[in-house]
């Protein structure tokens, strides 16, 4: 490893962290990690795209869920539904499943929050109960 000290001001990284969200989804870290590992088998043959369809309930009587899906022309497709608590709007967003899996593997809390605003806006991953950890993940184009 080689490093070099650069003269100048360190960039203000806080500018890229979204300050607000339209949807906050709470889900089991272990369940989401398992779903991401399954999706990654199909996604890795392409561009590692996994779609997260965050489904907000239409009424208080309906459960919320996140459907994680990936597809490959050679091996087919995979869809996994994970129970969730969605506060806000439903949203379809895509992430690089490898990056999503990597962050979930280091989170040690039972539940994780996914904060999103739009399919083309950065998402934020936060362990529930750990305010010292914030992970920004950029979405991928849904084409």
Keywords, separated by commas or semicolons:
17% helix
Task: Describe the model.
The protein is of the alpha+beta class and 143 residues long. A hairpin with a 6-residue loop joins strand 6 (111-116) and strand 7. The chain is built from 2 helices and 9 strands; from the N terminus they run βαββββαββββ. The longest helix has 15 residues, at 29-43. The model has no long low-confidence stretch (mean pLDDT 92). The protein has a single domain, classed as DNA Polymerase III, subunit A, domain 2 (DNA Polymerase III, Chain A, domain 2, Roll). It has helices spanning 29-43, 97-106, and strands at residues 23-28, 49-55, 64-72, 76-88, 91-96, 111-116, 123-127, 135-137, 139-140. It is 17% helix and 40% strand. Helix 1 (29-43) packs antiparallel against helix 2 (97-106). The chain has a 9-stranded antiparallel beta sheet, with helices on one face.
Biggest β-sheet: strands ordered side by side in the sheet: 8-7-6-1-4-3-2-5-9
Reported CATH architecture? Roll
Overall CATH class: Alpha Beta
CATH fold name, please? DNA Polymerase III, Chain A, domain 2
Q: Note the gap between the termini.
A: 37 Å
Helix/strand/pairing class, anyone? Answer: alpha+beta
Number of helical segments with 4 or more residues? 2
User: Which stretches are poorly predicted, pLDDT < 50 over at least 5 residues?
Assistant: none
Order of helices and strands: EHEEEEHEEEE
Proportion of β residues?
35-45%
Output the CATH homologous superfamily: DNA Polymerase III, subunit A, domain 2
């Amino acid at each position: 490893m080689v490093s070099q000290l650069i003269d100048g001001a360190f960039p203000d990284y806080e500018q890229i962290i979204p300050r607000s969200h339209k949807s906050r989804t709470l889900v089991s870290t272990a369940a989401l990690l398992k779903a991401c590992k399954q999706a990654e088998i199909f996604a890795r043959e392409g561009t590692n795209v996994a779609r997260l369809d965050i489904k907000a309930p239409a009424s208080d009587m309906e459960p919320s869920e996140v459907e994680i899906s990936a597809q490959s022309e050679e091996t087919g497709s995979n869809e996994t539904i994970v129970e969730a608590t969605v506060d806000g709007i439903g949203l379809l967003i895509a992430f690089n499943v490898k990056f999503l899996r990597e962050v979930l593997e280091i989170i040690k809390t039972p539940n994780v929050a996914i904060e999103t605003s739009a399919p083309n806006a950065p998402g934020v991953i936060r362990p529930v109960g750990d305010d010292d950890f914030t992970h920004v993940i950029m979405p991928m184009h849904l084409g």
